[in-house]
Amino acid sequence: MKSSKYSTFEANFAVARKIASQKIENFKERKANGELLNDFEKNSYAGLAIDRYLSSAGEEGALEEEDVGEIIMVALIAALDTTSAMLNWCIVHLAMNPNVQEELFKEISSNITAEGNLTADYFSKSNSAYLNAVLRENHRITPPIALNLTKENVTGEIEIHDVTLPKQSMVVLDTRSLGMDPNVVKDPDTFDPSRWFDEEQVKGRKGTSAEVLDHPLYREPFSAGARKCPGSRVANYEAKVMLSQLVLDWKISLASDDQKIESWRDVPYFNGLTVQPTVPELSFEKRH
Ligand code: HEM
């Protein structure tokens, strides 16, 4: 059975697939002609996957060229829209919440070298508590994928809160409605990272219905178990490094008041495979 929404998704996916396969063809051609631009391209996932394919061609069990293209495509689709959705929303929230942005700037700037550069040390958990809290708050209000955990109940009938889930039910953790439920979160529309690093707040949730917010399965947008996102660590570090460098270099704000954006709810977004905002016009003021 195909709903009209699914048909739209399928048609759009076919377009994305076509664009991706053209990009891969173009990449393969440039690689074969020795025209890759730099080490970044040469050592990229696609570059190395093609090398592995070429060195194993003809061996038993080796992949076909077409399979390599398919694998690169899945990796690109899974990696790009998701990471950009996460970063775009973070930038929107920081632009709309100058106090939060200032607090983040303070944390980052007190963790840089004398020359003003970021180092790996900042990204240890204890040094970047506020940055982590910003990412968690972003995940609560605007997760890049609204349904981040899908599991099949394979063991047998399970009863949870007087509801019986028959064997083989598909169960989805709906991240968005949990984190935006006013019975669980006070002022759910307010972007307030202190919910996550303030020990008092975390302690205060213990033994209440809000305790679920601190459950490991809710913490991140990458699902869990066998099908957990294999790119989660790359995605997390990628987002942290990009966001930190951006906030270190620029003060970001909404470009004008004409955009009528008073709450994140005024920002239009596309709810597809990922939840992608239409980023309002922003203004960037150099910090130093
Ligand atoms: C913020 C960024 C990202 C988010 C929110 C995200 C989220 C997810 C989620 C929720 C799944 C599980 C889907 C399911 O239930 O089947 C998944 C799977 C996957 N992700 Fe990510 N992802 C991100 C970034 C990346 C990156 C950077 C890569 C690659 C470098 C990647 C590669 C994949 C792949 C290949 C799968 C399929 C795994 C499988 O089915 O075995 N993702 N991702």
From TrEMBL:
<dbReference type="InterPro" id="IPR001128">
    <property type="entry name" value="Cyt_P450"/>
</dbReference>
<dbReference type="InterPro" id="IPR002401">
    <property type="entry name" value="Cyt_P450_E_grp-I"/>
</dbReference>
<dbReference type="GO" id="GO:0020037">
    <property type="term" value="F:heme binding"/>
</dbReference>
<dbReference type="GO" id="GO:0005506">
    <property type="term" value="F:iron ion binding"/>
</dbReference>
<comment type="similarity">
    <text>Belongs to the cytochrome P450 family.</text>
</comment>
<protein>
    <submittedName>
        <fullName>Cytochrome P450 family protein</fullName>
    </submittedName>
</protein>
<dbReference type="Pfam" id="PF00067">
    <property type="entry name" value="p450"/>
</dbReference>
<keyword id="KW-0349">Heme</keyword>
<keyword id="KW-0503">Monooxygenase</keyword>
<dbReference type="GO" id="GO:0016705">
    <property type="term" value="F:oxidoreductase activity, acting on paired donors, with incorporation or reduction of molecular oxygen"/>
</dbReference>
<keyword id="KW-0479">Metal-binding</keyword>
<dbReference type="InterPro" id="IPR017972">
    <property type="entry name" value="Cyt_P450_CS"/>
</dbReference>
<dbReference type="GO" id="GO:0004497">
    <property type="term" value="F:monooxygenase activity"/>
</dbReference>
<feature type="binding site" description="axial binding residue">
    <location>
        <position position="229"/>
    </location>
    <ligand>
        <name>heme</name>
    </ligand>
</feature>
<keyword id="KW-0408">Iron</keyword>
<keyword id="KW-0560">Oxidoreductase</keyword>
<dbReference type="InterPro" id="IPR036396">
    <property type="entry name" value="Cyt_P450_sf"/>
</dbReference>
